[in-house]
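re: ur question from yesterday

yeah so i grabbed the chain u mentioned. its 359 aa long if i counted rite. heres the sequnce exactly as i have it in my notes:
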Amino acid sequence: MTQSQSSSRLSVRELASRLGVSNATVSRALNNHPEVSPQTRARVLDLAQSTGYIGARGARPQTKTIGLVYPTDPVRPDHGSFETAMLSGVLSGINEQRFDVMWVNVERDKSPDETYSTFFRRKGLRGVIVRSVVPNSTMVEDIATENFPAILIADHSDNPDVSFVYSDSRADSTRAVDHLVHLGHTRIAIAMHAVLDADHHDRLDGYLEGLHRHGVERDDDLIATAIGTLDGGRQAIDRLLGLENPPTAIYFTTPPSTLGALQRCLELGIRVPDDLSIVGFDDSDMRFHAFPNYTAVCQDAAQMGLEAARWLTRAISGSVVGPLREVRPTTFSVQKSTGIAPVSPVRLTPTGLARDHAS
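ran it thru and got these structure tokens back, copy pasting raw so excuse formatting
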């Protein structure tokens, strides 16, 4: 650290003098005391960070840390493999500028009277990657209005000030339906994630577009909700194959529900793909670790994490200017879980599996 940087650090008394407030107010602001207004706290933290303030116990606002920010709990079963793949990319992306990363739960840690920028500065963060897993959340737009460095990952925004890295899975969801129709399937179901955020809307829209393209009438009985867990996939198999006129193919829009569906088929003696074709979703290489290897719409979560972290740390360091609004393509990978449509579907009844001999 240079001599000029060291000499620019201020004490609590000097911070108070510059800001025209009492020493006690500065101390309370640095310790997030509820009696300090959000505006005053923000002023104190801004000056403390810009001057490299070091507190009595050696604590100071971090200067090389970004946050991976979630509105609620960062670790949930329905997040599936996306989070681990994304995090591996983020960790690669922060190395270029030698940053660190911190997990942040906004619901748990942010005080109601704090602005986002005040909250993040209190956490010692220079910028944030926002993982918006709550439908219709305005968190990233609110952060953008405060001009705090931020980028949204795995979602997008119409706000021109919001940076994002996002995979658009609509076109490949349509290709998945094309693939199934070309194999002779006309009863094609979709098992949607229970949280219908932007990327899952894309998958539903792509599915519906594919049906329309081939003149297949939409049947709402074939649009099921499947929580993004193993149990969600298993339950979707039971529900869809329990219909009077069940599907011969199902598109699962999350990796965990895809795996759960394949497990349930094994338990029931349903032959994939002879009796039922399954298209799933993959964030990394999970499709190659299932039996059978499953056909999937695929996004590269690690690459999204890399791009988001690299842009954010470069922006903080001043080497890039302006927002990043990157829409990455998905891919469609044909594996062993899809095949020619059976003559008639298998159906689950209260007494077990009904299989037409002709199939």
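noticed a couple things. Confidence is low (pLDDT under 50) at residues 1-8, 56-62. also Residues 142 and 321 are 20 Å apart (CA to CA).
anyway ttyl
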